[in-house]
Structures are given as structure tokens and as C-alpha cells.
Amino acid sequence: MAKKVREAIKIIKKDGWYLDRQDGSHKQFKHLVKTGTVTITYHGKGKQNR
Hints:
Blueprint: H1 3-14, E1 17-23, E2 26-31, E3 38-41
């Protein structure tokens, strides 16, 4: 996992978000009080975003 992705996950977890589910390279986080879902994706070095 890229350093920036790990940093982003660390920041949102510190704010109270938790990993709700993961589908492949998509991690979806939810919060007990705040509404909505935060999705963080990571495709690695070998895969091009299209």
C-alpha cells in the first residue's frame, strides 16, 4: 500500500471512521455519528487508472 494511502487511512481512523467493508482495492469507511461513506482506493504501481 502506498505511503499516502496509509496516511489517509490513519487520519480518518483517528477521526473515528472504521472500515465497514472492502471490495478489491476499494476500502469503505463509516462513522458512528457522521453521515456518509468515505471510499479510499489503491490500485498499486502496476495498474493504470482508466
